[in-house]
Amino acid sequence: MNWCEVQEAWSQFKPVLKSYWRELTDKDLERVDGRRDELLAALQRRYGYADGEAEREIAFFEKDIRLAGAVK
């Protein structure tokens, strides 16, 4: 699944994102509003990830949600 698909169905993906990153708040997800760069920034703020680490986390998420039942 590519990020455009996540962005288009953002409201459906918010609960899935929260199952991956429980420290993200509803306000964080509202701010992200489907923008990948904003998710990267939110992960850096909440988890203290470096750029590369946050990018790897998002890439893992993108790969993992291709599978059925991706909620952790």
Explain this structure.
The chain is an all-alpha fold and 72 residues long. It has a single domain, classed as Protein Yjbj, Chain: A (Orthogonal Bundle), CATH 1.10.1470. It is 69% helix and 0% strand. It has helices spanning 3-8, 10-20, 26-32, 36-47, 51-64. Helix 4 crosses helix 5 (51-64). The longest helix has 14 residues, at 51-64. The model has no long low-confidence stretch (mean pLDDT 90).
Labels describing this entry:
72 residues; mainly alpha; Protein Yjbj, Chain: A; 5 helices; globular
What's a quick, concise take on this entry?
With about 70 residues, the chain is mostly helical.
CATH class placement: Mainly Alpha
Order of secondary-structure elements: HHHHH
Count of DSSP H/I helices? 5
Major sheet size, sense and barrel closure:
none
Task: Give the averaged pLDDT, no decimals.
Answer: 90
* Beta-strand percent range: under 5%
Q: Supply the helix-strand structural class.
A: mainly alpha
Write down the Rg. Answer: 11 Å
